[in-house]
Amino acid sequence: MNSINTLKGYDKVGHVEDQSSIPKKNPKHKLLIILIPALILLTAIICLTATLIIHNTSTTKSKLPKSNSITAVCSLTNYPQSCISSLQNSTSADPEQLFKLYLQVSVHSLKNLSAVPQQLIIKVNDPRVKSALLDCESLFNDAVEEIKGSMSLMNVGQGEKMLTVNKINYIKTWISGAMTNLETCLDGLDEMDSSLHDVMKTSMVNSNEFLSNSLAIVGKIDLVLDQFHLTMH
């Protein structure tokens, strides 16, 4: 009888040992099994949403009537007709692209203006006036570089924005600087009591209008974007 009980005891011990050898399920492992598919699904949803937003924005821009966009952009300026005539040959209806094109127009005008001082220098004998005209030439060239710098800020790669709040602040500063350069030129000629002051002022009309319009557009471009349900991109 004792031997039988002993065998039964061994049998119980063996049974306990068999149960202890079965690996217990880790609760953390269960949690990971649930979380990983959920995270994958969430990532897929986010990517799909971003793709749809980009697609919808691009579609909106492609459907935006060019004439409406140009009118909206130029309505922000002090010289809307000058603005419209400069942009009418644009192939883009994107307000930001239109602004960049308008900066190109401004650069072209300033380059033409920078040639004026040399044209006037050969007509004067007063060395002080000649010096003032050379200063004007330098100021105009600096203005060209400032507007070119503004344009370069809008040259972006994939995923970058053409305009941001910081970029707009830089561009406004550079356009204002270019406008100041033109005024400084006139001040210098005025100090010389030169009759060329009025000649130069007339030569500056287009450039002043383009710069004034550029400053107005960049300062309020968010209003145009809102009007067409667009964002800075």
Automatic annotation (TrEMBL):
Segments traversing the membrane: 31-54
Keywords: Disulfide bond, Glycoprotein, Membrane, Signal, Transmembrane, Transmembrane helix
Stretches assigned to the Pectinesterase inhibitor domain: 65-217
Origin: domain of life: Eukaryota
EC number: 3.1.1.11
Top-level EC class: hydrolase
A Pfam family per the record: PMEI
Keyword Iron (UniProt): no
A molecular-function term among this protein's GO annotations: enzyme inhibitor activity
Family to which this protein belongs: In the N-terminal section; belongs to the PMEI family. In the C-terminal section; belongs to the pectinesterase family.
UniProt cross-references to NCBIfam families, sorted A to Z: PME_inhib
Name of the protein in its database record: pectinesterase
